[in-house]
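haha ok so turns out i had the wrong file open the whole time. this is the CORRECT one, sorry everyone. sequence first:
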Amino acid sequence: MIKKIFLLSLVLFYSCSEAENLHIVDPVDMEFNIALEKWNNKAINSYTFDLSVSCYCMFESMPPWTIKVVNNKLKTIDGKDVNEQQLENEYWFALTIGELFTIIENKLSTNPFIYTSKYDSEYGFPVEIYFDMEEMMVDEEIGYWISSFKIN
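then structure:
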């Protein structure tokens, strides 16, 4: 009986400590440069987040994938280690926060037809991103959504 109580206490303690590290994402309208500066000033290089992507790719939308970044390198997707070849092919959509900022910057420089972006109020990382690059082109739209951000 004492072992069961100890194990239950340990599980509850561990769950609470994990929940305390989870950041509640607060999406706000913010200028790209301000968000990028906020993110860079925080100097966060190891973190975990859930990423959803919607596009007219091989699939219409993806459920959230849990992305783990260590020292600014993508290390795992849904708990599985990934290598460079997998990231280029099978997991092309999996990106670090820095890579998402690069995509936003590149797409903004080409004057998209429609775009929306919201950033986390505390850390500045992108929370919601959507681009429709051409008014008359179909199937090139793409959206990214980040949730469950946690600093490791």
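The first strand starts at residue 27 and ends at 28.
again sry for the mixup
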